[in-house]
Amino acid sequence: MNFYEHTIVARQDTSKTQLKQLQDKYMSIIEKNDGKILQIENWGLINLSYIVKKNKKGNYLHYKFQSRPEVVLELEKNEKLDKNILKYLTIKYKKLDLDTNYFNSSTNEEKEKSK
After folding, report:
1. pTM to 2 decimals?
2. Pick the CATH number of 2-108 from 3.30.70.60, 1.10.10.10, 3.40.50.2020, 1.20.1250.20
3. Dist. CA 91–CA 75, nearest whole Å
């Protein structure tokens, strides 16, 4: 089994309940196919570097999981059909860093204070 990081960018007008449904939907796809979710992070609403399907911002969901390669194909097949998703990206790793949270607000505040 391989380690993966998978990021989903949902539309900016997606409600919190819809985001929770998206998160649960893709979490269940991973778990149904004998995958193991190690961590899920909701990065929130972030500005996109360019306009994607008339959206300037996107809601980011980030999964870290362990599974077989077929699970990634199943995830991406479902995401192509989902109208709430703008973009997605999957990266395969030999080892995952589960300690670092790059979008934690307290980490950003500490960086600003040290400048």
Report:
1. 0.81
2. 3.30.70.60
3. 13
